[in-house]
Structure formats: structure tokens, C-alpha cells
Amino acid sequence: MPASLPVTRRLPKPALSAENSKRLALIERQIADTEALILEAVPALPDAEDKLVRPKTVKGVKQVTAVTLLALLPEPGSLDRRAIAALVGLAPFDRDSGTLKGTRSIAGGSAAVRTVLYKAARRAAALSKSPLGDFYRRLVDSGKSKKIATVAFTRKMIVTLNAILRDRQPWRHANPWKTQ
Questions:
Q1: pTM here?
Q2: For a tag site, which of 53, 69, 70, 137 has the least CB within 10 Å?
Q3: Is pLDDT at 30 greater than 90 in this prediction?
């Protein structure tokens, strides 16, 4: 007769909940400590202050997005729009062969940067009253799904951030009341 498996002790729900609360508190402290270390290290980087302040002039770009761009994408401002989109993984690639016309999709690049930019773009797309927000709403109004419009908006956002860092100018979106 085979030996029976040991019976695991089951914790009552209140004890389990208390244990999970302790783990969650520990994880939150570790995240806060890591963020503090990152913010301490940022000023030591070349042109750090410049590269942190200018991107935050774009709607949706906050401290986390700016620090992620600075840490994981050191090339912004030195590449053209196609290269920066491909580096982040937001350049559309085709799947064509002969007469077959396949779908376009994004691939490759830095997943961490793409994820942070996508989350910033989702928030900014709905709230922004800038030309970037207008671009998103135009895509949705023309029948594109919100996900596809957000990916296109994210690509437009990284291209704009690249131009801001290249030109060393803050984002100046068009004034809708100004006539030209």
C-alpha cells in the first residue's frame, strides 16, 4: 500500500488574510524604496533634468513615464521618427507575400517602454484636448477600435517625445482659438 500524501494544514481565512496583508505591505515598501533609489540616481545621468522635465509637458506623461524613457531608452532625440517607433516596438510591420495582403501589426522593441507608453496614452487619449487627443478621437470616429487607436496614439506620442527631446523645446500644442 502506497504511503499517503501528507495533509497540508489549512489556515483559517482571517489568518490567511492577515498573512496576505503583511506580504502586500512588504511589497509596497520595497516598491517605494526602489522608486526612491531610482529618483536619487537620476540626477547623476547626463542631461537628466532636461530629459525629465520636457517630456512631462505632454499630456499623460508623468514621472514614471519620463524616468522609464530616460532609463530604458537613451536614444530619444537622436533618432528619426521611424527608428524611434521601431526601437520601442510601435512600428507597423506588414505580412504581405505576393498578391496576399496581410494584416499590419506591431512587434519587437522594448516591451517595458512600450507598456509604460501605452498606459500613459490610454489615460491621455481620453482626457487630452490637445492635437494628440484630437488625433485619437478622429481615429475612433472613423471606425477604428479603441485599442488600435490607442496604439496609433502611442506611436504618435513617442514620435512627439522624440521631437521634443531632439529640439530641446517643451511641447506646445496648437491654440484652438488662434486663427492663422
A1: 0.69
A2: 53
A3: yes
Own/partner pairs for 160-165, CB < 8 Å, 24+ apart?
Answer: 160/58, 160/132, 161/55, 161/58, 161/61, 161/69, 161/76, 162/76, 162/77, 162/79, 162/81, 162/84, 163/81, 164/54, 164/55, 164/57, 164/58, 164/77, 165/51, 165/54, 165/55, 165/76, 165/77
- Contact at 8 Å (CB) between 93 and 99? no
Tens digits of residue pLDDT in 50-101 = 777 788 778 788 888 888 888 787 777 788 888 888 888 887 777 677 777 7
**How many residues comprise the chain?**
180
Q: Where are the domains of the chain?
A: 13-44, 47-167
